[in-house]
Amino acid sequence: MNNNKAKWIKISFVISIILLLIKFYSYYLTNATSILTDALESIVNVVAASFASYSIYLSSQPKDDNHPYGHGKIEFFSAGIEGALIMVAGFFIIYQAVYNFFIPHELNMLLEGMALIGFTGLVNGILGLKLKSEGRKLNSLTLEASGKHLLTDTITSFVLILGVAIIYFTDLIVLDSILSILFSSYIIYSGYLLVRKSVAGLMDETNPEALKETVEILNKERKDCWIDIHNMRVQQYGGDRHIDLHLTLPYYYELQQVHDEVEIVEEALENRFDGAIEVFVHADPCIPEKCCHYCQLKTCQVRKFSQKSKILWKASNMTKNQKHYHDLADNL
């Protein structure tokens, strides 16, 4: 899996360098600040691809004494660096655009420049879709972030062509600076979103999508003897995932039975996700006076109260640090 990640990052790096040269050549031909905007963002693509290559290499390293959860979080850091670089490039472009607004300069060979930018946009779009797809498939934030960045670059490139075409037909050179400022604002916003996602991952913010997937799997595999699951936490470490939860089982189960049920839960989760999955299950005994009311185990020989309800397993109650009899009143 990590070989596939490295392969696509290397491809992205090589293509980014080629497209960078083409964009700067386009700027050399046209002298348009708006095209310089696109070229400068491509520098970010090259730097980001370099850092992403290292982050994927590091994230593939096995766990060690200093990193018991592995090195996967470096991918969040990589995405944050890429987002920060995008924002810096955006602010620099705004500065250059404002300068050219007051001191305009002549533009040349706009048709040739548009053709070159159109070619780079098409290549970035194809590569961006592929990286985004591979990132989701391999559960890699680094690949997905690079793919989104390239798709953003594609959009700005084609909008840029439209803007340069307007300049070409109207001869309003001042539009070059206005266009650059608009592009830069969009670039800064897309960079902010990457930084925001990076910080969320580094701070172990709840990943709603990962949590939703885990809840869906447990509901699908749910057994009658799994009386409830609570205090569940799902954490993402780059392409790896860590899940821990408390599983309530009948209090009279012997140790071997408890062990078997715990293994079933672990295997159900480990076999349904891509990437490395680490599952820790803590087994709790049921409390007859409180759990019987929603226990689904029809073969229970020590039931003290009849079943009144079935607790629906949702992210909202499975993540609470309490057994589900606290929620029983809401289901009656």
From TrEMBL:
Any Pfam family matching the protein: Cation_efflux
Transmembrane segments: 12-30, 42-60, 81-103, 109-129, 150-169, 175-195
InterPro entries documented for this protein: Cation_efflux (IPR002524), Cation_efflux_CTD (IPR027470), Cation_efflux_CTD_sf (IPR036837), Cation_efflux_TM (IPR058533), Cation_efflux_TMD_sf (IPR027469), CDF_Transporter (IPR050291)
Taxonomic superkingdom: Bacteria
Keyword annotations from UniProtKB, A to Z: Membrane, Transmembrane, Transmembrane helix, Transport
A Gene Ontology BP annotation from the UniProt entry: intracellular zinc ion homeostasis
Location of the Cation efflux protein cytoplasmic domain: 226-286
Cellular-component GO terms for this entry: plasma membrane
Membrane topology note: Multi-pass membrane protein
Gene3D superfamilies according to UniProt: Cation efflux protein transmembrane domain, Cation efflux protein, cytoplasmic domain
GO molecular function per UniProt: cadmium ion transmembrane transporter activity; ferrous iron transmembrane transporter activity; zinc efflux antiporter activity
Subcellular location: Membrane
Location of the Cation efflux protein transmembrane domain: 9-203
Keyword Transport: yes
Protein family: Belongs to the cation diffusion facilitator (CDF) transporter (TC 2.A.4) family.
Protein name, UniProt field: Cation diffusion facilitator family transporter
Organism: Belliella baltica (strain DSM 15883 / CIP 108006 / LMG 21964 / BA134)
